[in-house]
Amino acid sequence: MLFALISTSCRSAKYLEDDQALVKDIDIVGVPAGLRESASLYIANDIRPNSRLYLQIYNLFNTKNGRYKTEGIKNVGEPPRILDSAMVDLSANQIQRFLQTNGYFDAKITPEIEINKKKAAIDFRADMGTRYHISDIDRSFADANVETIFRADVMPATQVRIGGPYMERHLFDERERMYVAMKNKGYYEYLRQYMRVGVDTIGRQNQTKLFINFTNPDSARHQVFHINKVHVRIKQQDDLSAIRNESRVDTARRIRFEDQTGKFRLRPLARYLFLREGMPYSLHREELSYNRLFETNGFRSVKINYEKVDSTKLDIHYELTPRATMSNQIEGEFVFSSGMSGFNVANTYSHRNIFGGAELLEIRARYGVLFDPRLPGSITSKIFNNDFQIGASIVFPRILTPFRVRSVGWYGLPRTTISSSLQLFFQDNTYSNRYFINTLNYSWHQAENILHSYTPIVLEYRVGRLNEAFSQRLRDQGFQLYVETNDRQYFGLGSQYAITYNGNKLNRLENFSFIRGMVDVSGNTLGLLSNLFNFNTDDQGQRLLFGVPYLQYIKGEADYRLYRHLGGNRQFVFRLNAGLAVPYGNNSTLLIFEKSFFAGGMNGIRAWQARTLGPGNYSRADLTEDLRVNLRNLDQLGEVKLETNAEFRFRILNKFLGARLNGATFIDAGNIWRLRELTPNLNPGGEIRADKFFQQIAIGTGFGLRFDMNYFTIRLDAGLKVKDPQFSGSEQWVIQHFFNSRAFKDAYNARFRPDRYSFIQYNFGVGMPF
Q: Quick check: 302 and 275 in contact, CB under 8 A?
C-alpha cells in the first residue's frame, strides 16, 4: 500500500493548471561540499520537493474532477510545492548571502529552471569567486577588566585568527563566548551588543581587516553585581488549591522561604540553589540551579528572577511550581516469541514528594502470561508460564550516607535509590521461582561526561524449584547440573559498580567514543564471616547462612562503542561488548542462571532470538523433544560473552507519518561460551577453545527502520543469519540455503522438533540498540 501511494504521487502534476509546474528536484551546483548542506537550508520551504507520501495523502482528500479543490480543503498531508519564481529569486539571494558570510564576498548565485510536463527542476549555480581571509585584527577595549577576561577566557578558544577565512559564525561564537564569560564573572547587565565588528576590504586583494571594539555602556564602566537577598517560593499547583502561606527565614542559610503548599522542606532543595547571598552573579550558576531543580522531577516550572536593589546588588527570587504529587499509570503490551503469544499488564503508583524534598516513591505491580499453542487442551491448559512482580523504590535527589558527603551536583543530579522487589515465576510442569532482591544504590557525576553508579548492598534471596517429575527426568538423562543450578535455594550479599563515559553524547551526531564498565561481586563478606565463625555446611560442602547456601562469584562486563559522523544524517557505529563471570568458593562448579550471559536479541546479535544462540558450537539435536520444549531459554547460557556490531545509519525521509524515517544496515558477530567442560557435559561444544574460536562465532546481518519522534525512537530490525555455529564445517554458512530454504528447514524441523529454523528474525523495540 505504501509503495502504491508513493508511486501514484508521481502523477500529481496532472492536477495542476496549465501554467503551473510541480517542483520535483532542487540542486545546488558549484558550492564546496562542506557548505552545500548548510546552503540548502536557505531554500524557501514553498519550493522544496514534496514528500511523496504526504503529497499523495493530500491529493486523496483535496482533488475533484481531475483538479485541485479551491474550497473545502482538508488539512491533511502536504499541498503541492508549485514553482514560484519569486521564491526562487529569494532563495538565490539567501544562498548568496550565506556564502558571503563565509568569506565568499564576490559569490553570485544564478538559478536555472527546467520545466518538462508540468514538472520543474531547479539548479542554483554558484560562481564562488575567491574566498577572503583575515589579514589583520584590531581589538580595542574601553575597560581593562573586560580585556583581562577576554584574554583569559575567550582568546584561547577563538576561531577568529589572522590567516584564517572570514566567517561570520566565528565572530558570533566569539561574541557569545564573551557574553557568557562576562555574565559568569558577575557582569549582570553586560549585553552582546557591546562587542562591535567592522570589516575593511578596500584595497586588499582577497583580504580583510577586522576592527573589533568592546565598548562600555553609556561611557560608564561595567559593574559587577552581587546577590543581596535570596527568596524561595513554592507556588500552589493551581488557583483552586488552598494557600497555606508557610513563610520563614532560614538564618543558617540566609534564605527567605515561602511554601504555599505546606509540603516541602527547604534543606533538601537548598543544595541546588547555586546562587546565594554574597555571591557574585553568575549565568553558569543560574543555569545549574534551573537544571538541577528540574532534574529532581518534582517541579513542572522553575523560574529565577532578579530585582535590582542598587547599582551593584540583586535580590534573587526562586519560584517553583510543583508537579502533581501523586499519579497512577497503567500499561499493557502484547507479547509474541518463538511461536508463543501472551500479554503483560502493569500498574505504577508514584508519589513525587514523599518526605518533602522532591523524593520519588514508586510502587509497581506487573503480571504476565505466555501461551503455547502446541500444548493440548483448553486455553487455560495452554499457559506456558506466569510471571508476577511487585516492587517499590524511593529515589532521593541527593547522596544519603551516615557520614557527611559533599554532593553539590555540579555536573548532574546525584541520587540515592533504595529498592525492593519480589518476583514469582511459574513455568508449566517445569519450574517455579521466587526471587526477592533489595538494593541500595548511589549515582553521581564526576564530570559532565562521566557517571558513576555504586551499589554497596545487593541482598537477594532465591528459591527455585523444578517440577519433581521433570527434575527426575533430567537426572535420568544425565542433566544433573541443570537440576543443581535451577533447583536450589540461596542467599546473596554483594555489591556492584559501574562507570559510564560519554553517555550524554549518545544522541548526538559527532565523533566520540562511549565506554561502560561494570563489576558485580558477591559473597566476599559472607566468606570472611564464615571463616571467622565456622558456618555449617551441607552434604555438598557448601557453607550455609540460616540453613541456606550463599553465593560467591565475580562478574565483569565492558561495552566499548566508536561513533563516527559521516556528514548530514549519516553515522557509523562500531561496538565491542565483552563479559566474564567466574563462580568460586561456595558455588565454584556452575554459575547460577540469573548471573549467566546469553546471546541474541534486539540489542545483541539480532539474527537470533534472545537466549537461542550458543554456547559455542552447542546444538540442541541431542535433546529429546520434550526437553527441547521444557529447557527452552534455560540451556543456552555461558560464563564468557563476546559480541561485535557494526552499523551504518542514514536518513530515508525527513517527514514520515509525523516522524523522521531513518534506516540502518548492520553486521553482528559473536557468541557466549562455557569457561570449562562440565561433567556431565550439559552443552557439548559449548566451552571456549582457541583452536575452534572462529568456528564458534555466529554472524548475522540485516536492515532496520527507525521512526524518530524526537522524544523516543521506534525501531524495527530484520536480522539475517549468515553463519550459524551449531552446525559444522561448511554447513555453518547457512546463507547458502537462504534462497532454497524449504528443504533445509524441513530437514532441520524433523531433527529438532518442535524447534523451527528461521533465517530472518524480526526485532521490534523502543530506543536504539546501542
A: no
SS3 content of the chain, % helix, strand, coil (to 5): 25, 40, 35
Reported as a pLDDT band with limits 50, 70 and 90, residue 7 is low
Three-class HEC string of 163-200: CCECCHHHHHHHHHHHHHHHHHCCCCCCCHHHEEEEEE
Residue 335: pLDDT band by 50, 70, 90 thresholds? confident
All residues at 6 or more sequence positions from 701 whose CB lies less than 8 Å from its CB, including other chains:
607, 665, 666, 667, 668, 719, 720, 722
What is the Cα 359 distance to its own chain's centre?
24
Q: pLDDT digit string (tens) for 354-395? A: 999 999 999 999 999 888 777 777 777 778 788 999 999 999
Length of the chain: 770
Answer for the pair 670, 629: CB distance below 8 angstroms, yes or no: no
CB of 261 within 8 A of CB of 246? no
DSSP string, 323-350: PPSEEEEEEEEEEEETTEEEEEEEEEEE
Say which DSSP state 151 is in.
I
Instruction: Assess whether pLDDT exceeds 90 at residue 628.
Output: no
- Closest to 591 (Cα-Cα) out of 520, 660, 535, 497: 520
Find, among 768, 689, 698, 764, the residue nearest to 735 by Cα: 698
Whether the predicted pLDDT of 10 surpasses 90 = no
Read off the C-alpha cell for 63: 482533488
Phi and psi (nearest 5°) for 326?
-120, 150
pLDDT tens profile 22-33: 999 999 999 998
Q: DSSP secondary-structure letter at 162?
A: T
Give the Cα separation of 629 and 381 in Å (integer). 15
* CA–CA distance, 619 with 642 (Å, rounded to integer): 19
